[in-house]
Design a protein that fits this description.
The complex is a heterodimer of chains A (172) and B (184). Chain A has 172 residues and is mainly α. Among the domains of chain A are: 87 residues, Cytochrome C biogenesis protein (Helicase, Ruva Protein, domain 3); 31 residues. Helices cover 60% and strands 0% of the residues of chain A. Chain B has 184 residues and is α/β, with parallel strands linked by helices. In chain B, the strands form 2 sheets. A 5-stranded mixed beta sheet of chain B has the order 5-4-3-6-7. In chain B, strands 1-2 form a two-stranded antiparallel ribbon. Classes of the chains: A mainly alpha (172), B alpha/beta (184).
Chain lengths: 172, 184
């Protein structure tokens, strides 16, 4: 009985994990959209994953159920079937919807800051920290005045007498 | 040098504050994206008419046909589109105040539904073309939905795109001055 319950629990857990996995990869592509040629279909899906759904904006058309996403997926497949290269398909979409339609902005002069900005910030911070510590390290400590020296001596002496202080060789 | 370092965070704070305040501008719509088709010649398309015996709309109308040398507005709409209903009376206003023909392209719509829509609300369009599978809108004009309005100049070049419904304010502040300029 207990064993059966345990089996049930394990099966439930496995099912839960599998479902959670599926939940993160949604399938918006309708079966009737798919191309019969698996290589072409794979290319279409790869392109679609990087094309922004123009009405939902933070989803790719591969994930979106929006009508226009469906239209664009169909359009991509038609073009691939007609022999267009992946780049030609992307260029076709960019010509109509702008760079915005690409989920990854292309690397060019006006987008350079987006790509290298974080690294510039990191490098700047690292340089700042390096310079700061180099300066701190180089600074010589001011000599103690007689009063400070006297206090220090007194302090050290007081602790010299401590029986636990092994540095005095008194490890008895 | 040291003093400069000291006020640097203040300068950065001021710059960020300025950016954020500018970002709060209510007239700035971060979702409005300029169409790459602005400044480009109208794509080639042929939109069949709503009924037999009426003219449809094709790109040749702007180059050599009825609308050659005229500034024209093209309005994508659909009978199933709610904002299109709100926009509908403004299309007549746009046409009469700017003195231009407003052409309608019915996007992903059935002819019967379309006829019902026009019977109910009136027909502000000089001509209507049908785009039943939506390809003229997507491939030719890069629309993301309806309504969308395009202003075409005398040479058949797209000069403006308004995604979403027109408003009184938009017509008077943006479209009328632009059209006047294009008509020169």
């Amino acid at each position: 009985m207990i064993r059966q319950i345990r089996h049930g629990l394990i099966a439930g857990l496995v099912a839960g994990v599998l479902l959670a996995g599926f939940a993160t990869t949604s399938f918006a592509v309708r079966p009737d959209e798919m191309l019969s040629d698996p290589a072409l279909e794979a290319r279409a899906e790869a392109i679609s994953r990087d094309i922004r759904c123009v009405v939902c904006q933070s989803q790719s058309i591969e994930e979106s159920d929006a009508d226009i996403a469906h239209d664009l997926r169909e359009l991509i497949r038609e073009q691939l079937k007609a022999g267009a290269t992946d780049d030609q398909v992307r260029a076709f979409l960019v010509a109509r919807y702008g760079d915005f339609v690409l989920l990854k902005p292309p690397f060019e002069a006006k987008t350079a800051l987006i790509w290298i900005g974080p690294f510039l910030l990191l490098a700047g911070a690292a340089a700042g920290i390096y310079l700061f510590y180099r300066r701190v390290g180089r600074r010589e400590a001011a000599p103690l005045d007689p009063a400070e020296q006297a206090r220090l001596d007194k302090f050290l002496k007081a602790h010299d007498d401590h029986p636990d202080d092994r540095s005095q060789g008194g490890a008895a | 040098m040291r003093r400069l370092l000291f006020i640097l965070p203040l300068i950065v704070l001021a710059a960020l504050t300025a950016i954020f305040v500018l970002g709060l501008n209510p007239n700035h719509d971060p979702r409005a994206i300029d169409s790459p088709l602005i400044g480009k010649k109208i794509a080639s398309f042929t939109a069949p008419a709503l009924a037999d015996g009426q003219p449809g709309i094709a790109d040749s109308d702007f180059m050599t046909g009825a609308y050659k040398g005229q500034v024209v507005a093209i309005n994508f709409f659909a009978s199933w589109c709610v904002p299109c209903r709100a926009e509908h009376p403004l299309l007549k206003k746009l046409g009469s105040e700017a003195g231009i023909p407003v052409l309608g392209l019915a996007w992903k719509d059935k002819k019967e539904a379309l006829q019902g829509f026009l019977d109910e609300l009136g027909n502000p369009y000089a001509r209507i073309g049908t785009d039943e599978n939506g390809r003229i809108g997507i491939v030719g004009f890069g629309i993301t939905g309806v309504p969308e309005t395009f202003i075409i100049d005398k040479q058949g070049i797209i000069r403006d795109r308004i995604p979403g419904p027109l408003s009184d304010e938009l017509i008077t502040t943006q479209l009328l001055p632009l059209i006047k300029d294009l008509q020169k």
